[in-house]
């Protein structure tokens, strides 16, 4: 999935739909793939249950409406692990899943091959049950739409026929609200009696309508009493009356079915019934569809009336519960994968798993530790094929000659399956055979499927997994159907290991939450900034746009010394990370910046940092400030605007010394590189002296020489020891 940025949906979608429709006719693929929409979802789900139950593993793949909501939300080398999680969380919360590929694989020992059952589900977050608040909202990214259209994504099928869903959290909340409404005996949700009890009738038209309705109800009731054995319909004087009042039986009681009235008129009818007729009851019955039925029912006693109201409540509750169950939709697939406890296989799938949690389980936890623990509870066995591609020396070396993208890995490892792939020039061992079965059709020969169609991508992911397992030494000819593949001794050490960031090569263990040692002590990831110390980093934003990284390094180095800055990294055009050579430079810089901004003397104008502070919009903080900004659900395109929207300009605590927290050898992955500005208690008592010393430096008669600034800062630090 490419990384793109949000635009107005209507303009981009119309262009994408045009592209999709014009190129759809040119698409010709014989790859057997089960396309599933809301029209055939029930039958497809029943089949999928059988396939998953018999499967050795299930491969998945997702297509989303975008990846990053702003350029600075992308994954950077300077992102600590907890910040990377926050960026993944933001992506999963803001973008939609529009296609979900599920492909169970089962080993057929009689044919010595795997049988794959690829399913391609169109998913759309349609609001099927009433939920407080606005309708579902999500972001699209321009090139994401164009990217999907390029590969003939069917936008009409997604939006019109896509399968909706409720997460477990949404279902729980809907049932809670339903239970509360049911327990409220006066709730107008069920019988619509409460709200009209004291409505005054002031308008002449309302008075005339209420009187006419009262007369007609009296005629109808009197007719029932005169002829208890009759079921005939009351003869009204006009065709309109026949259409609006029809005698029916409801719950074994005579009733009038009311149609053709406005909502205001229905309220007046309720008022008339409640005020003038003790033996008539107004009820609204919710149908299985979105329609409801308005009735006036004759009851012979108060007990009969109470019984009727309970029956109506029970019926409405049953219908509401059925609607909630029907609205669960695609989440049934996720519940199936979770309940079967099968090995789940994805390709670079940490973001996919975050989407699964956010859409189908509940709101993503704010803390990464809680997320990891919860994911492992629902899906105890997950394998990332990108991990496996780097798990074997020989395979890793061969993959270095090609991209580890899904399509490239598939072409390289599965040349006999990817029929359209030409010779790679590499000699590989014999491929594990894979056949495809959809409905009653089973095939081992087909044309190449459509890339970036979730069902086909899930199939490719499963094929890569099978071949990678073969390279790890797993002989499927010896595989027993009763054996849990996740517990295979050659595979289990890679289970639940996922790349949190492919850019950095960071790997986490979902079962423990800890960092996993880089594969083979890996030199595979060549980092531009190999020695990142987060406690040494200052975040600066809002500086004059003319300043570049080199200019900022020069400004800071003139004050703190030529070797004080090890690197400067742009988040975007409005913000940079400055990494110092020593952690104490962080608090020194922040305090000096604050002092300069409060000073009106000539020194503040001629100071080397004056260029950086020009305009009065420059702000700074330590790495925790960056984390706080990333944790906000707001996403402005420019980082400086984001910081302003979050409300962070200057944080005094960023300057305060922090108690050192020594990292243990096996520290939690999420605590790695946590802030570690080591100071002792005596330093706190001397902060006032340091502050005064800096003021003296600014107000004294010092000659403005670069080396003098460096010497003065060093002297201040010496006083602070």
UniProtKB/TrEMBL annotation:
GO molecular function, one term: RNA binding
InterPro entries (UniProt xref): CAF1_poly(A)_ribonucleases, RNase_CAF1, RNaseH-like_sf, RNaseH_sf
Transmembrane segments: none
Domain of life: Eukaryota
Cofactor(s) it depends on: a divalent metal cation
Family: Belongs to the CAF1 family.
Protein name, UniProt field: Uncharacterized protein
Source species: Lithocarpus litseifolius
Lineage: Eukaryota, Viridiplantae, Streptophyta, Embryophyta, Tracheophyta
